[in-house]
Amino acid sequence: MSTETVLGYDVFVADPMPMNGSGPLPNGVPRMYQPIAVTLIQGRSDAVLVDPPLTTAQANAVGDWVEATGKRLTHIVATHGHGDHWFTAEMLAERFGAQVVASVGTIQQMHGNLGAREVLWDKMWPGQIPPSPVTAVTVPGDSLDLEGHELNLVEVGHADSEDCTVLHVPDLGLVVAGDVIYNGVHQYLAESPDGDFTAWREAVDAVAALAPRSIVASHQDRTLDDDAPRLITEHRRYLDDAEAALERYDKPVDFFNAMRERYPDFIGTTVLWVSAQALYLAREGGDPVKNLVNAWL
Questions:
Q1: Considering the domain 8-296, what is its CATH architecture?
Q2: Which residues pair with 257 in a beta bridge?
C-alpha cells in the first residue's frame, strides 16, 4: 500500500422502504423493498462513490453524508444496470461535479433499465425517482486511480442480472460487490428464469478469486459484518438451497415459505416473493419481460 495517503471505506445503508404492488405478501406483511447500501472509498482528500441509490430522498441523504466528510468526490461508479443502484447517479454527479463511470456491459444494461422506468420502476415508486439519463462513461482499462491506489472494475458476468461487475480495491482487500453477493438479504433470483444458478456461482467464484478480506454487498443487513469468507460461503449456500427448493416444490408459495423457514432472519421477503413468482411463471412459458413485470406488480 502507498504510504503517501490513507485509504479507507464507509457504507451508507438506506432502510427498506414501502413500494406499490398487488397486495401484501403471502405471509400477510406489506411490501417493502430491500435495504440499499452505498459505498464511499476515501483517500486523504478525494473519494469515489459506488452504487448510488434509487430515490431522490435517498440521494439527498447520501449527498449530505458525502459532504460531511469534506472529501472531493471525483467519480461515481455503477457496478451493474439495475436502477436501484444508479438512477440517482446524475443527480449526485451534478451536486459534486463528479463523473459517472461503468463498464461497457453495465452501460448497456443501464439503458435497458431506463427503458423500463415507465412500466416498472415509476409504478412502484411514483414521483420518487429523479430524472435518470445514462451519462456513465467507460475508463481506460476499467480502472480508476484514487490518490495512487487502483480501483478496478472487474467483469464477472451474470449474477442477479446480466453484465455485472464488482469494484476491487486491492490495497484495502475490498470488493464492492454490487448485487453479485448479498449479505443477510434474500437474493433476487428472478432473472435466472430457468432456475439454474451456474452462471451466478461462477460470478461468485470470480469474486473469491480476488481473495478479498472484506465484501460490501449492495443489499445488506446493516447489523452484519463485511467478512468476505462468510459472505461467499453463505451466498453459495443460499443458491444451493434455492435450487433444491425449486426442484422440490411445484407452487411459488411453497418455495417462498420454504426459503423463509430456511432463512428466518433474512431481510427482503418482498424480493423473495417476486423471485418465486417470476421463477414459476417462467415454467409456464410466456414473455420473460412480461413475467418479470407481473412478478413485481
A1: 4-Layer Sandwich (3.60)
A2: none
Q: How far apart are CA 270 and CA 278, in angstroms?
A: 12
Q: Which residue has the cell 500500500?
A: 1
Give the dihedral of Cα atoms 219, 225, 228, 229; nearest 10 deg.
Answer: -120
Domain boundaries of the chain, sorted by first residue: 8-296
pTM of the model as a whole:
0.95
pLDDT 10s digits, 170-207:
999 999 999 999 999 999 999 997 889 999 999 999 99
31-46 tens-digit pLDDT? 999 999 999 999 999 9
Question: Quick check: 33 and 186 in contact, CB under 8 A?
Answer: no
Q: Is 135 exposed, middle or buried (0-12, 13-18, 19+ CB in 10 A)?
A: middle
Question: CB 258: neighbour CB atoms within 10 A?
Answer: 18
Question: What DSSP string describes 78-118?
Answer: --SS-GGGTTTHHHHHHHHT-EEE--HHHHHHHHHHHHTII
Tell me the C-alpha to C-alpha distance, in Å, between residue 187 and each of 43, 70, 104, 268.
Answer: 32, 35, 25, 8
